[in-house]
């Protein structure tokens, strides 16, 4: 399994500042994400089986609580009212899937993008639809949002990411906000006011050189992290 217990557990120390005040992220996030192994080859049945495997293998007892679908879960276009939709073939019942994951005692995460399209480039991003999408995620029961940084039209992350933060907060549902802006514009210095975690590097690769380089790049950032907000050197593979 491609667990994403971020290097935070090894690299980061507590400091006195708090991040986004939604009550989440008091410790670094732990769970499973679909991207590194499955990429776009995901389905409702696969996610159900993965969630059950996490319970069967006892990962939940070690703190792994999130089951996160990365890119490629959404339909290629929005509904007529502009709302985001899950792919009707691969994810015919997103609310039912989320309810199933919750029934196992786990939490559920989804992926979106702070641009017009996701990084797969064939599904809608949330730029301009932040409030509508946040409300949909809250209605479905989403617990975690990974928010990517493709197709932004050149707008800075510091401008786009707070819009989704505010939209999530207004739903009244605590949703862990994972900012995946690849370390653009030194997020460690400003993102604690916006998200529960912020990517500090580009994508990791499955070799020791890549892993060690992520540790090196984060070595000087420990003072920016603490309960509520964490540096994120990407997922373990």
From TrEMBL:
Give the enzyme's EC designation: 3.2.1.-
Q: What class does this enzyme belong to in the EC scheme?
A: hydrolase
SUPFAM superfamilies, alphabetized:
(Trans)glycosidases
Gene3D superfamilies noted in UniProt: Aldolase class I
The lineage's top-level taxon is Eukaryota
Q: Which Pfam families match?
A: Melibiase_2 (PF16499)
Alphabetical list of InterPro entries matching this protein: Aldolase_TIM, GH, Glyco_hydro_27
Q: A single GO molecular function, which one?
A: hydrolase activity, hydrolyzing O-glycosyl compounds
Q: Which UniProt keywords apply?
A: Disulfide bond, Glycosidase, Hydrolase, Signal
The leader peptide range reads 1-19
Its family?
A: Belongs to the glycosyl hydrolase 27 family.
Matching entries from PANTHER family are given as:
ALPHA-GALACTOSIDASE 2, ALPHA-GALACTOSIDASE/ALPHA-N-ACETYLGALACTOSAMINIDASE
Summary of subunit composition and partner proteins: Homodimer.
Entry protein name: Alpha-galactosidase
**Species this chain originates from:** Amphimedon queenslandica
